[in-house]
């Protein structure tokens, strides 16, 4: 489903060169929830952004759903990104759009008709528990509700992969639990493969099947969550 092979990423040149990723290899089978944990600056964000080519790897290959992402044309990449949803720490909602119109945005960009959009957005809002908030604006919502809107938006184009970039890091523990529960449901009910990055052990423990540890741009562990957290 996601195959990252020999990926390195370098920022800058000369004295200011940063080796953010060093020969990273990672395979995530379909339907799994995989966590990547590491300290700030370890390369987590660079790694997850290399999956949908928000960052372009300097070398190596990224295959999602059988497609080599680094070789796609701009149009092919846009279509491939419809199959890859993403959510962020700070939600990235559009403040001038209602909840409904935020979730509708990817469908509008895909050229869907107004009626097709209505038929798609309503069940998504129901899935994330926000049917009664459709006409509100992001500023009227709590952090957890905003992340639910972002999740609905990420699912609008029917992705089979969901990338979560510190998705619960701005939320309190109770809200974090409820968002993780929703991600688990999405994984189980819709069969969506999830790659998440976090600096929080608790997130990995509570929903991931497997976990990798990233340190200084290198993946230094890759284990079942049960094995990872068992003391030797
Ligand atoms: P993490 O998500 O684990 O905090 P990042 O992937 O954001 O780590 O960063 C990894 C390294 O790459 C850090 O040293 C960071 O300063 C550097 N870095 C990240 N993005 C850029 C960029 N756009 N330009 C230069 N350096 C960057
Ligand atoms: P940039 O303008 O930073 O080079 P893009 O134009 O590719 O990057 O994307 C702009 C923004 O759109 C990103 O910062 C991100 O918030 C969002 N975005 C891009 N691709 C996706 C995706 N597949 N899923 C969700 N959000 C995305």
Automatic annotation (TrEMBL):
It comes from the Bacteria. One of its GO terms (cellular component) is plasma membrane. GO terms for molecular function: ATP binding; ATP hydrolysis activity. One of its GO terms (biological process) is amino acid transport. The keyword Nucleotide-binding applies. It is found in: Cell inner membrane. Residues 2-232 form the ABC transporter domain. It is a peripheral membrane protein. Keywords: Amino-acid transport, ATP-binding, Cell membrane, Membrane, Nucleotide-binding, Translocase, Transport. Belongs to the ABC transporter superfamily. Part of the ABC transporter FtsEX involved in cellular division. Important for assembly or stability of the septal ring. This is Cell division ATP-binding protein FtsE. It comes from Halomonas qinghailakensis. The lineage of its organism: Bacteria, Pseudomonadati, Pseudomonadota, Gammaproteobacteria, Oceanospirillales.
